[in-house]
Design goal:
The protein is of the alpha/beta class. It is about 40% helix and about 15% strand. It has 2 domains: about 15-240, TIM Barrel, CATH 3.20.20.60; about 245-273, no CATH class. The protein is built from 11 helices and 8 strands. α2 links the parallel β1 (about 25-30) and β2. The protein binds 3-methyl-2-oxobutanoic acid. The site of 3-methyl-2-oxobutanoic acid has 11 residues, from β6.
């Protein structure tokens, strides 16, 4: 049962602003498929992110770089079909918007048209200014993403906390202000010092969603497979584990295997036809 007040029937970008205004924190999780999206939507989640983390979680890749626009649209179509209430945001994948605003627009239009999603997310600040501007001018809501931006992992060389030094912190703050001025409806802040998260929150009026960015932002996002304990080998400090689905599934499957081997399954209760 959700503890969210759920006073907002269908979540829109306007509703997110209203939530921020009344101090209701925004909940966001990733979703990549119909069945999980249905559970999360019914539980009352506010935003579902069809994240390019599908590349890691669904396809077993080491980074988010290999996932394609076609893959993202396929996942987004499944999620959109399941959702009645949540706002569905889709990551524009690596290589389909950086350095080319026409391509950014084409990719974002494809996501919106072919999946029925409600918004897109892009990683970066000043470097992708033209792309963000062009997509927003076309009427597509854009969520920004600053701090640790996994599509640039080979530039960073590490998944460590970003913006610990003052130059990078200053750039991040300037980028956040720029994204707001360009018209982004929200920004994800990933893996930055909590104090910097607080400073950004003090400068901006759009909702900020944190993942490892402290508690002074307007909402939180996690990868659903991490918080449900399906993934086993990823335990960063910012993660809270809410279930051990890996253990539960392993036990259930072990039980099933034993029943099949021992010929306990199927029994006469399962043989009605
Ligand atoms: O792809 C993703 O899962 C994300 C979240 C970590 C914010 O971008």
């Amino acid at each position: 049962m959700s503890t969210s007040k759920n006073i907002f029937k269908k979540i829109t970008t306007q509703k997110l602003r209203e939530m921020k205004a009344i101090g209701e924190k925004i909940s966001m999780l990733t979703a990549y498929d119909y069945s999980m999206a249905k559970i999360l939507d019914r539980a009352g989640i506010d935003i579902l992110l069809v994240g390019d983390s599908a590349s890691n979680v669904m396809a077993g890749n080491e980074t988010t770089l290999p996932i394609t626009l076609d893959h993202m649209i396929w996942h987004a179509q499944a999620v959109v079909k399941a959702v009645d209430r949540a706002l569905v945001v889709v990551d524009v994948p690596f290589g389909s918007y950086q350095g080319n605003s026409s391509e950014a627009l084409r990719s974002s239009i494809r996501i919106m048209k072919e999946s029925g999603a409600h918004a897109v997310k892009m990683e970066g600040g000043i470097e992708i200014k033209e792309s963000v501007e062009r997509v927003i001018n076309a009427g597509i809501p854009v969520m920004g993403h600053l701090g640790l931006t996994p599509q640039s992992i080979y530039k960073f060389g590490t998944y460590a906390v970003r913006a610990k030094d003052s130059d990078e912190a200053k750039k991040l703050l300037n980028d956040a202000v720029l994204l707001q001025e360009l018209g982004c409806f929200s920004i994800v802040l990933e893996k930055i010092p909590a104090l910097l998260g607080k400073q950004v929150a003090e400068h901006l009026h759009i909702p900020l969603i944190g993942i490892g960015a402290g508690s002074h932002v307007d909402g939180q996002v996690l990868v659903v497979h991490d918080m449900l304990g399906i993934t086993q080998d990823f335990k960063p400090r910012f993660l809270r584990s809410y279930a051990d689905l890996n253990g539960i599934i392993t036990e259930a499957v072990g039980h099933y295997i034993r029943d099949v081997k021992s010929e306990d399954f199927p029994n006469n209760k399962n043989e009605s036809y």
